[in-house]
Amino acid sequence: MRKDLNNAIASDFGHKVEVMANLASALEESEHKHDEIQRIAKLGHWTLDIVNKDLQPSDETLRIFGLESEIFQPSYKTFLNVIHPDDRERVDKAYSDSLKNRTLYEVEHRLLMPDGEIKWVFERCETSYSEDGTPLHSIGTVRDITERKQAEEKLQKSEERFKLAMRGANDGLWDWNLETDEVYYSPRWKSMLGYHEIELGDTFAVWTSLLHSDDKDDILEKLEHCIKSSADTFEAEMRMCHKQGHWVSVLSRGFLMRRNSDHKAIRLVGTHVDITERKQLEEENRAHIRHLEGMQKIADAASYSLSPEDMLNSVIETTREIFQSDRAWMLHPCDTDSDYWEIPIESTVPEYPGAFALNKKIPTSPEVQQLMNDALNSLEPVIYCPVPNLGSSIEPFTVRSQMMMAIRPKFGKPWLLGLHQCSHERAWTTEEIALFQSIAMKVSDILYSAHLNRDLQKLSQAVQQSGEAVLITDRNAVIEYVNPAFTEMTGYTQKEIIGKTPDVLKSTSQTAALCKNIWDYITQGKVWHGTLVNKRKNGGFYPALVSVAPIYNDHGDTTHFVSFQQDMSEYQQMEENFLQAQKMEAMGTLVGGIAHDFNNVLAAIQGNIYLTRRTLENQPEIADKLDSIALLSSRAAGMVKQLLTFARRDRIEMNVFSLNSFIKEAYKLAKTAIPENIELICNHCQEDLIIDGDTTQLQQVLMNLLNNARDAVSHVSQPKITCTLKPFTATDAFKNAHPNVDTVRFAQLSMKDNGYGISQENLNKIFEPFFTTKEVGKGTGLGLAMVYGAVQSHAGTLVVESEIGAGTTFNIYLPLQDELKIQNQDQDQEEIMTTVQGQGETILLVDDEAVIRNTTGEVLSNLGYKILKASNGEEAFKIFKSHQKDIDLIITDIVMPKMGGFDLAACLRQYKAEVPIIFATGYDQMDLINHDNEMRLGLIVNKPFTFAELSQSIRAMINDHQKKLPHG
Q: Tens of pLDDT along 369-400?
């Protein structure tokens, strides 16, 4: 029994052992399969007993982390050390946060392998907790995602390269899903048309809505053909509407994608390229070619004609044909003030004959006159479409559209070139307008060429009749031509002088060295200027201002020399007079400086004489002496006045005159003071420059600048001074640099020398009075100060350009006037000798000179006035505010310390005080400039004044003021 039981137990135990063995084998096989699955999936797992800190990783986990199971002592810290250092803190924090917040732990991070390889893994785990919230176990997985990350990185780089390529190409991208009709439009596609990314929808209808109506049908047809045919590409040019309303030219290219199964089109992907600029350039090139072809036709028409009249007729005919207009015409002369106008040249179609064909003279109506003036005042073609109503005289010509332009040849009155469209209203294109303008300019050249021969004849006559001697030699200095003035000046006839050399004119003063210097100078292609003493045929001598210049052929070779000579005998005396004028200018400066003090002294003397005479009325012998003193004082005052007038210190006499003519004459006079070794050039423009100025001051300006330039080049080996006169139009930069400029058109007078130049240190001081860098006795320091003051008094601008070693240029800009105005000034003066008594009125007397203040005050008191006194304008203003109701008149000096007379008047006017004022001054009356407001209710008298005249002025001003006061 026991044996059977033991056998049964043994059999059962064996069976169980077998079962356990089978189970172990199955479990081992399952674990092996599990490991294989993890290896293939690159997915490992791990468990962590948080309490006991027991970490159990799977084999795949170890492989992923690059750890060997034989030597690895699993721990959380060991695994943490394999994580990339840049990710370690983030991963540790993510796990700690999951434990703290009882959340799922998920994180991507990098592993740093021992060989430096970088792996990417994705970890996930969940943690179980005790009832009190203590974390117990974490079970997690780790997946190797390196291949995925590498693929993503490659894809990202590919996308970046694609975006950069598209951005570099500046192309827009579109992707049309043909099955859903949805379209992807890239941001560049939309911005090309001025839209933001969210402003346009994602349908094909958006595309078609932006297409130009003239292009839409053609584009849709091409798209349909691409989709339905075997073609897999699409290309077309189209116009699309920009958000701002203009049209953008676009080149669209696409590629069609089809399904492999049924070859059905499913997507069309392509690009948009902005070709607007290219299309514009193409159109501009075509327009340029048409322009050149039109101008070539005009040139051919002109070249095939024999006379100027035939030339103009041919050009007008060709112009009408080019523009296919109904009528082309020219009006000459274009005189809007004429009572009638007639067309001398025209070309018409038979249906619409013009004024020339009908032989009509048309009355110049105000409407026609306005059309002419519009064209004459414009530098571009003037267009009328439709043509306004021009009156009944124009109706027979049936003009519905007109384009015309003024032609301004270099002679005579302007012409008008015009086109008429009679059959319909015609809008002329920009291209047609430009071509018409070029034709008008070509016609101007034709007119100039046609009259060139006539101008040459005039030039020949001018040389023949010129008052200056003209001599022309060949390149070897053999005389070929002389004009009548030469024969008159020298006494040689043409037959006697032609074939000889200018040596026949040599005097003993012309050394061989001088002659060689002149010859070397002109053979170098330069123009020689200087003065020579020449010999006449009769043996007499005369000083001559001579210039010699080379004449070149078309290849730039010197073929002849031309010389201009002017007899300077009369100018020698003028030079002496000029030097005397310079001395008088210095005297004028001195007189102007002492005039004020001297006149004050004379005024005090006159006042005391007046008072003494009234005191000693019954002593005739003393009265005679007082009369003598008064006479001497009056003579002294007259002498100061005469000196001021002679020195032009009393006032600037402005007159409107031509600066060209003035500079030419002034230059002739001024250049006599320039040594012969200095090359002096004066360039004048042809345009007549009219200014409003004082000729005496401007003469002094020119002379001072020339003298300054002469001194500047005194030590230069080849001294040169250039005087240039030309018109100047102020630019924005010029206006910004000179904000006081209130005009646009100027005459620019430039004086340039090639001297040493002015240092930057001295450049800002040169206009200061008495500043000079010249040696003692060679400069007063007043010349440039005078120049600056004169330019300022002419409302002009003075600009100096200088560089050490490169010379100096003085640029003077004087405002131009529109026309000459004759200014006549008639001044009638009546001397009033009767003294008028006052009626107890109060006069405020203001003067900084105590003797003037006291003497004049005493005289006025004797005349019956109450006197208040002040030593300056500031004190006077305080007195006036205290006695405003009592003061009937103010007599004030102009120049005083603290506050002058004009400033006092300004304060009174701001104070709303309308009291009359007499300004008494010892200076000249130029101080009144720009004081119109202060001079309101005012009068100026010069010191010394006669008290009879002063009393008359006081009485008249007080009476006039009282009449204006309200009565009540």
A: 888 888 888 888 988 888 887 766 676 678 88
Contact 153, 120 (CB under 8 A): no
d(CA 91, CA 43) in angstroms, rounded, equals: 18
Those residues whose C-beta lies under 8 Å from the C-beta of residue 946, and which sit 6 or more positions away, are 606, 833
Which residue, chain included where needed, has tokens 């006092």? 904
What Rg value do the Cα atoms of the chain yield, rounded? 52
> Omega of the bond prior to 333 within 30 degrees of 0, cis?
yes
366 upstream amide cis, omega within 30 of 0: no
> 94-98, 258-262, 434-438, 958-962 — which is least confidently predicted?
258-262
Note the pLDDT of residue 440: 85
Q: Which residue has the tokens 């044909």?
A: 321
Going by C-alpha positions, the residue among 117, 160, 124 that lies closest to residue 139 is 124
Tell me, what DSSP letter sits at residue 854?
H
Strand 401-407 and strand 382-384: pairing?
Answer: antiparallel
The two structure tokens encoding residue 486: 């030469």
Angle at 614 between CA 610 and CA 616, to 5 degrees: 115
How much of the chain is in helix, strand and coil states, percent to nearest 5?
A: 45, 25, 30
How far apart (Å, rounded) are the C-alpha atoms in residues 309 and 332? 13
Q: 838 exposed, middle or buried (CB, 10 Å; 0-12, 13-18, 19+)? A: buried
Tell which phi-psi region holds residue 867, choosing left (phi > 0), alpha (psi between -120 and 50) or beta. beta
Report the relative pairing of strands 720-729 and 797-803 from DSSP bridges.
unpaired
Contact 382, 418 (CB under 8 A): no
- Tokens of residue 626, six digits: 């007082």
Res. 681: pLDDT tops 80 = yes
Cβ–Cβ under 8 Å, residues 159 and 64: no
pLDDT, average across residues 406-432: 84
Rounded Cα distance between 369 and 337, Å, is: 8
Q: What is the pTM of this model?
A: 0.34
Helices and strands (DSSP H and E) totals, the chain: 28, 34
Pairing of strands 679-684, 720-729: parallel
> E strands along 880-956, which residues?
887-893, 917-921, 938-942
Residue 340 clears pLDDT 60, i.e. is over it: yes
For position 580, what pLDDT does the model report?
45
Sign of CA dihedral 850, 854, 860, 861: positive
On the question of pLDDT at 129 being above 70, the answer is: yes
Please give the share of the chain, as a percent, with pLDDT higher than 70: 78
Model confidence pLDDT, tens digit, residues 580-634: 456 556 655 665 656 666 666 766 676 777 777 767 766 776 766 666 676 666 6
d(CA 835, CA 833): 7
d(CA 82, CA 62): 11
- Least Cα distance to 779 among 768, 763, 790 occurs for 768
> Residue 684's closest CA among 719, 708, 658?
658
Cα–Cα separations (whole angstroms), residue 219 to 178, 216, 240, 268, 890: 16, 5, 11, 14, 92
Least confident segment among 102-111, 271-280, 307-316, 614-623: 614-623
Q: What is the C-alpha separation between 608 and 458, in angstroms, rounded? A: 72
The tens digit of pLDDT for each residue in 774-799 reads 654 455 555 677 787 778 878 888 88
Those residues whose C-beta lies under 8 Å from the C-beta of residue 144, and which sit 6 or more positions away, are: 42, 43, 64, 119, 120, 121
Distances 337 to 625, 645, 698, 814 between C-alpha atoms, Å: 71, 46, 37, 32
CA atoms within 13 A on the CB side of 592: 17
CA distances 413 to 322, 332, 371, 381, 437, Å, are 27, 8, 17, 18, 19
